[in-house]
Amino acid sequence: MKAKVTLGLLIIGSTTLISCEELLNSEAKTVDTIAPTISLNTTDSTILEAGSAFIDPGATVNDDIDVSKQVIGTGEIDTRTIGFYTITYHASDVAGNKAQSVDRIFQVVDTTDPIVELNGESHEIIFINDAYTDQSLMISDNVLTPTTIVLTGEVNTQVQGKYQLTYTVTDASNNQTIIHRTVDVKEDLPPELILNGDQSIEVLQGEEFSDLGASALDEKDGNLSVNTQDNIDIYVSGEYQQTYSVTDSANQTTIVTRAVTIIDNPFITTWKTDNTGFSEDNQIRLPVNLEDYPEGYDYHVDWGDGHSDQNITEAITHTYDVAGTYQISITGKYPHFYQSPNGTAYLDIEKLLSVDQWGGNLWLSMALSFYNAQNMQLSALDSPVLLSVSDMTAMFASASVFDSDISNWDVSNITSMNSLFSNA
Fold first, then answer.
1. Which neighbouring-strand residues pair with 83?
2. Of 104, 288, 370, 405, which sits with the fewest C-beta atoms within 10 Å of its C-beta?
3. What is the mean pLDDT of residues 259-281?
4. Count of other CB atoms within 10 angstroms of residue 61
């Protein structure tokens, strides 16, 4: 069974009539007349260091109906400029109710010292009477305000000593950085010259000699070139001197020397005095070639019997107390051991038994040197110095017992080997 419900509405003091449906709908609507509220988010500090990054801590809006609205902040903060700044937060709801704006005040402060770096070195070296120009500083600060620089101290370039310059840099907030530079005024001393290797060296006659050199250092000019002078003849034994010199920009010169001793490295031969020859049975005659080298000889002879002769410039004959076999050593300048087949020098060659050492003698020619040396053997383990030799014509011609290997000789400058071993 169906129930019938009749709704009635009594209006007192009004002539307006509404239906039941309108009455029911009006009960579902709420009129929003309450504005939202703004609350500031908490923050550690509202004091900002100049130059730092600014992040707005923001605010929160609360509304009894429209909970989706967000707060809006207005205002700017320049963290490069000290001062007070205000951020104002605004909000409104859908119904147009505006929240009471809320301000947050920030303060930008500068408590950071300026960053200061020296142009140039913190320890500079100059020399007496040099001009000195200060290279100043590089400064950076977290605030766009001028800085002041106060320099204390001075450099007297005419007096040797160490001078300190002090730079005091202060910014607009009275933050201060102090930095120092030392200027060392020195006397301009002569350059230092140091020998490479020993101050005294020995070199065997005829052996390759390489200059060890020297190095120079000047406190003002740095590394300098060294000049070298010497008159060393590695083929002539004796005492020599190398001179090294260096001059700096102030025209100051340093000189050092090295002593070089060329040690005798003789030409050694063995002779038998009583073999067939031009000289007597107790004599040996050493040949020379004055025709081609009239001023080329200046040699010394150790005759092997306790006697010697010095500074010989021509052929020489030595007489022994007793006939026999003797080893003869020759040093100095002896350019050509010359056996002329047409002269008397040739006639003593049969007394030569062996060449025991070539030594460091600088030969100029080997033409006919051992021509007809019928009793000569080559026992030397070294090689002759042939750098200046071009002629080896008939060097061993008719040297009938000679059978030695000379394949290791440097003959690169030889132009004539005619009859080198003819009848040998």
1. 108
2. 405
3. 95
4. 22
Tell me, what's the pLDDT at 391? 97
Residues in Cβ contact with 98 at an 8 Å cutoff, skipping those fewer than 6 apart: 35, 90, 91, 92
* β-bridge mates for residue 72, sequence order: 90
Quote the CA–CA distance of 364 and 351 in Å, as a whole number: 24
Q: d(Cα 49, Cα 51) in Å, to the nearest integer?
A: 6
Collapsing DSSP to helix, strand or coil, 370 comes out as coil
State the CB neighbour count (10 A cutoff) for residue 85: 18
Q: What is the pairing mode between strands 377-378 and 352-357?
A: parallel
pLDDT in tens, 89-127: 999 988 889 999 999 999 999 999 999 999 999 999 999
Task: Quote the longest CA-to-CA distance of the chain.
Answer: 182
Backbone angles phi, psi at 354, to 5 degrees: -165, 155
Closest CA to 146 of 115, 172, 175, 114: 172
pLDDT band at 337; cut points 50, 70, 90: very high
Residue 242 has pLDDT above 70, yes or no: yes
The DSSP element (H or E) to which 21 belongs, if any, is helix 20-26
* Phi and psi angles of residue 297, each rounded to the nearest 5 degrees, phi first: -105, 135
- Give 142 or 260, the one with higher predicted confidence: 260
Angle at 60 between CA 55 and CA 64, to 5 degrees: 165
pTM of the predicted structure, to 2 decimals: 0.55
Which pair of tokens denotes residue 287? 């040949």
Q: Return the percentage of the chain with pLDDT > 70, whole number.
A: 91
Would you say residue 371 has pLDDT above 50? yes
Those residues with Cβ within 8 angstroms of residue 346's Cβ, 6 or more apart along the chain or in another chain? 287, 339, 340, 371, 372
205, 211, 212, 214: CA torsion to nearest 10: 140
Taking the alpha carbons at both ends of the chain, their separation in whole angstroms is 164
DSSP conformation letters of 121-165: -SEEEEETT-------EEEE-SSSS--EEEEE----TTS-EEEEE
